[in-house]
Amino acid sequence: MTDSTFNKTMRHTPRFVEYVDIFSREDIIPSAGTKDNMLLFDTFNESNPLAQLHDAPSTRIYQSINFYLMEGEVAIVINGKEKTVTHSTVVNIMPENTFKLKFVNPNSRYFMVVTYPKLTNQIFKEVGLTYSNARLSLQHFITPVSALQMQDMLRIYTDIKRDLRGPDYVYKAEYVRCLLNAMMVKNINIHKYDPLPLEGNSNSRQYDVYCRFLSLLNKHAVEHRTVLFYANTLGISSKYLSYVCTCYSRKNASAWIDEAVIQKAKAMILVHHYSLSETSDALHFPTVSSFSRFFKRVTNETPKMYLQKEQK
Predict the structure, then answer these.
(1) 121, 114, 20: which is closest to 66 by C-alpha?
(2) Which of 88, 117, 137, 208 is 20 to 30 A distant from 65 in Cα terms?
């Protein structure tokens, strides 16, 4: 593990912090990993590495979490809703979800792989998918599995851990990615979700534009809601940016921007308990009514309706 004490804050507004790297805290020792690439955690050395996360605040994750609970019980809060997970369960949490670990039973046995955006994107590309499309981003999956399925995942994890901790060799990174590809494919089959295929050539300049746009959107959606801003930043036309987004996700740039703003608004309202006035101010809307109209246009419900539905 190289430099595991990396803490990163990409955006913040008062009382609302996004994209803090809670997995690279000094008091959490990973089993293996590489900085800004992937981190592995497990209880196989009689430790409980995630127990230290119980005091971490809710934060939007920009990593992908692949969690495999063999024994015990874990309570996690995803987008403000608590989920209790028991033995023989696989949990996959995609980027953009708000995440908090609330409780880990001291006797729990688990293993977990956290992958960072660049690697996650590479893994999905290699099997012809993209985690950024509407069917995957902002999703999470919790599925009980058989002992045989769990053993299959454990074998893959053990191979990844062994190679990461072992000496370097030719094409080591490629081999580890192949193992991660296998893990992802098995996860898809376990949860039985149907991701859309990646459309277009993933090695083209267009795909690079698409990924750079999503990265900019994560950083600037609080302040900027126009396609023109992102197109100018990328040095391309608004029409071309929307064309590229549609090619790779079946959503134009404007729809991506609206969705990003709505997800930030939902996190502020539900997870961080902002009032409507505070949320409107944080997202730079001129008035609360304009924010409410925007919210209803995108979601077909008002912010109050959304909060009442989620609190039931």
Answers:
(1) 114
(2) 208
The CATH class, in words, for 205-310 is: mainly alpha
Tell me how far CA of residue 301 lies from CA of 221, 225, 266, in angstroms.
Answer: 21, 20, 12
Question: Alpha helix locations (H) across the chain?
Answer: 117-126, 147-165, 172-191, 205-220, 227-234, 238-249, 253-266, 276-282, 288-299, 303-310
Q: Locate 277 and state its tokens.
A: 């006035």
Cα torsion angle, 97, 100, 105, 110, sign: positive
Q: Is 184 exposed, middle or buried (0-12, 13-18, 19+ CB in 10 A)?
A: buried
Q: What is the mean pLDDT of residues 216-234?
A: 90
d(CA 244, CA 200): 9
Supply the pTM of this predicted model.
0.73
Distance CA 95, CA 128 (A): 18
| Kind of pairing between the strands at 16-18 and 109-115 | unpaired
Kindly list the distances between the CA atom of residue 26 and the CA atoms of 3, 22, 29, 47, 296, in Å, as whole numbers in the listed order: 10, 10, 7, 15, 42
Out of 28-32, 171-175, 198-202, least confident range: 198-202
Domain boundaries, the chain: 11-191, 205-310
Specify the amino acid at residue 292. Answer: S
CA distance 168 to 117: 23
Distance CA 26, CA 34 (A): 15
User: Positive or negative CA dihedral for 256, 260, 261, 263?
Assistant: positive
Q: Is 220 helix (H, G, I), strand (E, B) or coil?
A: helix
Cβ-proximal residues to 211 (8 Å cutoff; 6+ apart), any chain: 121, 132
Rounded to whole angstroms, how far apart are CA atoms 66 and 191? 12
Provide the 8-state DSSP code for 43. S
Amino acid at 137: S
User: Given a cut of 70, is residue 57 above it in pLDDT?
Assistant: yes
Name residue, tokens 């992937």: 38
**Collapsing DSSP states into helix, strand and coil, what is residue 32?**
strand
Task: Please name the CATH architecture into which domain 11-191 falls.
Answer: Sandwich (2.60)
